[in-house]
Design goal:
The protein is of the alpha+beta class and about 160 residues long. About 30% of the residues lie in helices and about 35% in strands.
Length: about 160
């Protein structure tokens, strides 16, 4: 079991820069690797082109103790403001990294004039199906995209 980071440190969420690409991918791989066996292939966030997404201003990172411990990929789509990826490194679990990333996404959506935010999870990531409704997300669709069975959730923003 990986050693966890101290929960007393508040994560710092910031827009990623090109120098963060390697650390961002490593964080995403560490977060999603446990799901490979369950899904039968690498989860979609592990396959993203982080240097390109960072160049497009779509990636934020959460730092704890000056190390990238969380990654957020978010952007506007025709359906609204989309959270593509939320990843917290296994050693940062319980430190507030995931919460800070989702709060960042919600704040960014509001700043851009959106009244809701949406995201999806793989149907085999059952933990997320319990978690997202607890924090205000409501399931609104299930469909297969790019070979993944996905469940879509939306949250109204104040």
């Amino acid at each position: 079991m990986p050693k966890t980071l101290p929960p007393l440190v508040e994560p710092i969420v910031r827009l990623a820069n090109v120098g963060d690409a390697t650390a961002a991918l490593a964080c995403v791989v560490a977060a999603f690797e446990p799901y490979i066996e369950r899904i039968g292939k690498a989860p979609a966030p592990m396959l993203l082109d982080y240097p390109t997404l960072i160049g497009e201003g779509r990636v934020w990172v959460a730092e704890l103790c000056v190390q990238v411990q969380g990654v957020l990929v978010q952007y506007e789509t025709p359906d609204g403001f989309y959270v593509d990826t939320v990843a917290s490194s296994p050693k940062a679990r319980g430190t507030g990294v995931g919460r800070a990333l989702l709060q960042c996404a919600e704040g960014e959506a509001i700043r851009r004039g959106f009244t809701s935010i949406y995201l999806c999870t793989n149907s085999k990531m059952t933990e997320n199906q319990v978690f997202y409704p607890k924090i205000g997300y409501v399931e609104y669709d299930r469909r297969t995209e790019a070979g993944y069975d996905r469940i879509f959730y939306r949250k109204a923003l104040a």
